[in-house]
Structure formats: C-alpha cells, structure tokens
Amino acid sequence: MEPTQQNQPLYWDKDRIPVNLTLILALGITAWGAVSSLGWVDMGGNPSIIFALGVVVAIYTWVSTPRQYLIYANALCVVYGKPRVKVIHFKDIDVVEMGSLATVDQLRVRPIKGRRQPIRVRDVEAFYQQLETALNAFRAAYPEYGITIESSREMATEVVGDELVADTDAEAITTDALNDAPTDAPKETDTESPSPEAKSESEDDTPQRPPNHNPLY
C-alpha cells in the first residue's frame, strides 16, 4: 500500500511557530565564520570552527524542525526541511492522544514502534477532528488495524461530572434527612438564674460614680 492514495491531502496545516529563530541564529554564525575566514573582518576566535559550527547547527535545525502536517486517506505526513518527509501510515499508528490545553504538546501520535510524534499545528481542534475522521474511515475500510483515539479532556469532563452528581446526591440526602428529623424533641435552654449572693457580689463590685460637682457653682 502506497503512503498516500491521493495527490492532494485531505487536510493540512502549518507548524504553530512561523519563524525558526534557531535556524536564523545558525545562519548568522555561519556568515560570521565565513566573513572571518575570508579576512574581511577580524572578530576573534577561530573562523573555521565558527563556520563549521554554524553549518552543522543550520543543517540539523533544517532537517529536524517540522514545517507542515498533512493528512491523507491512509497516512499522516510531517514535512521538515527539504528533502526530509516523515510518513506515518495509519496501520502503524497505535494511539492518537489529545491532551489538555495546559500541555505543551496537546496532540500526539504514538506509533506501534518508535517515538511519539507531536503535532504542533496552529489550529489543533480542526486538525484533530480531520485526523479522527480520516482514521475512522480507514478503520471502517480496514477493520484489522486497531487504532485507539484518546482524549484526556473528555475523561476529565466525565470525572468532574460524576463528582458533581455525587455531591448533588449527597446534598439531597442531607436535606431529606434534615427534613425528616423529629421536631417534637424539647429544646434545652439555659434558664438558670443567678443566686442572690452572686447578684449582691456583682453589685458590690460595680464602681460607684461620684455625683456631678461643678466648682463654679
């Protein structure tokens, strides 16, 4: 089976980081080393090492940074810097993971063998829906390939919903128990009056105010 059955992808999206700052920095280091090697400008250091370091970092960044993600009828393609293109066949996918918004790599594809492939697209929701649709159509056509689609956000919503339902039921039970409680029980009140001795002591302890005396009269 070919990696793609159609010339045009069903859906595609670009990487969410439009500018590769690492590649720009590496190209700047390469230019710095080239100018120093030609003797046009003396910036110190070993120009050959600086030039070689810039070339190595630039090549590595070019071939390791995704640029586009394409969904075909039977495969997911990750386009890096030319000529590298990574093709993940649907038959080789084990789990598609959709994490919460707080995670760095919200959408991930876990193949049967190999490392997880993060999908860092601009519109994660739309890409996930299109990928899920393509995987469902592939599973309907080839039921022998089992592909699991997990969404941690849906699981979290279900758990929170169960907790809310449990709390509501507990509150309803508590309210019913309070309503069914007997109301004829006598209430205990503190009606004990102070003794005459205590009353006299409290009166003796109260300071007596002197009568109003104005020396002008």
Strand content: 15-25%
**Radius of gyration, CA atoms, in whole angstroms:** 38 Å
Structural class: alpha+beta
How many beta-strand elements?
8
Q: Uncertain regions: pLDDT < 50 for 5+ in a row?
A: 1-6, 154-175, 185-191, 198-204, 213-217
Strand-and-helix sequence, N→C? Answer: EHHEEEEEEHEHH
> What is the general shape?
elongated
Mean pLDDT across the residues is 74
Give a nutshell description of this structure.
This protein is of the alpha+beta class and 217 residues long. It is built from 5 helices and 8 strands; from the N terminus they run βααββββββαβαα.
Task: Itemize the secondary structure elements and their pairings.
Blueprint: E1 11-14, H1 21-38, H2 47-64, E2 68-71, E3 75-79, E4 85-89, E5 93-98, E6 107-111, E7 117-119, H3 124-141, E8 148-151, H4 152-180, H5 196-205
Parallel strand pairs: 5-8
Antiparallel strand pairs: 1-2, 2-3, 3-4, 5-6, 6-7
